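Take a minute with the sequence and C-alpha cells given here and flag any C-alpha cell that looks odd. Thanks in advance.
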Amino acid sequence: MRKFNHPDSPSAIGRMRASSMRKVNAALLLRIIRENNLVSRADLARLSGLTKPTVSSQVADLIERGVVVESGSGEPDARGGKPPTMLRFDAGFGALIAAEIGSSSVRVWLADLDGRPAESESHPITPELGAGHVLDVLCQAIQAVLERGQKRKESLFSIAIAAPGRVDVNQGVVVAADNVFHWRNVEVRKRVEDRFGAPVLVDNDVNFAALGEMHSGLAAGLQNFILIRHGTGVGAGLVLGGRLYQGTHWAAGEISHMIFDRASASEASANRGILELAIGSDRVRERMISARLGQSADLHPLPAGDFAAELAELLRNHDEAASRVLDEVAAQLGIAVADMAAMFDPELIVLAGDLFGLIADRIRELVGRVIPWPTRVELSALGADAALMGAMGSARGLAHDLICDLGYTESQN
C-alpha cells in the first residue's frame, strides 16, 4: 500500500520547503544571468551567495529546460587554470505576446523572453458587433504576428492583454466596459487561453499604461504615482507603495465617475461617468462643433482625423470657440488631477493622451494654485505604446516565474 504523508507532517513540510527554496534559488540565479549577460558558475556563486554545488545543480536544471545555454569560455582567474564556461540567457527560446484592445483596433506585439518586440500587428474592429467579434479579431492578430515571427503557438510562454473597463484580474474577465463596447462579464482570458494554450493575463488598459510608465517611463524608480489617461474614456492607474492598486471591485482609478457638485451628482450615470460624459474625446468633438456652428452637435458629423492636431491648428488661428471649450475641459480635468493629488499625495502624476499636450500648462497652474504642497505633473513620453509596454513587462514577469517553477515543461519553437 502506498504511504501518504499528511501535509502538516515534518517530512511533507520539509519537501515543500525544499521545493520552495529551489524555486527561489532558480529565480535568483536566472535574474543574475539575465542582468549580467555572460557569467560563469563561479560568478553566480559569488553574486548569489549560494554554494557551488547548489549553483551547479540549479544551472544544470536551467540548461535542461533550454532557457540558459553555455556560451564560450571566459578569462582564467589570476591563478591560471582552465578558463570558466560562460552562461547566458537564451531569450529566443520562447516568445511573449502583448495586446491592447482599443476603441477602433486591436494591437499586438510579439517579443522574445526579454520583452524585445520583434513583430507587430494592428487589426481594425467594430465594437458594435459585440465581444465575440472583437475577441475573434484579437486571436486572428495574435496568430498573424506569430506567423510573421515564424513562431508556433507552442513557443508562447505568456500573453498579456490590455482591455477596456473594469477587469477582474484573478478571473481574466472584463466585468464591465461601457463607451463603445457595452461589455458585461466577458471571459477574455478563457477565450485566448483556449485558442493558444499559454497563460494569459488580462488587466485594464490604463493600469497597464501605468506599469509601462513604471518600467520604462517617467515613473521608473518611483513608489507612488498616478497615471491619468484621456481618450474616449477617462481613467487613472494608481501605483501605491510600488504596487498597482486595483480596488475592492477592480474599480480603482475609475475617475470618470467623480462628481464635482450637486448638479453633476444629479446627472451622474451608473454606466458612463459624469466626467467622461463631459470631456471624453467624443464629447469634446461634439462640444467643439456646437460651439463653432452655434447649432446642436447632433446635427453635424464629427470631424475625422487627428482631433488633437485639429484643435492645435484652431488655437494657432486664435479660434475663440476652440479656446473656450479647451478652457472648460482643462478646468474639469484640472479639478480631477488636483483631487487625485489631494487624496494620494503622489510623487508624480503622469498625463497620457493627445489632448493633454494642449492643456497641460493650464492643469499645472490649477493644481499649483489649489494644492499647498509641491505636486509634479508631467506629460507621458510613451505615447500610444504605454499600455502595450506595461503588458509586455507583465508578460515577461509571468514567463520568468513560470521558468523558475519546477513544474515548468519545455516549450518548442
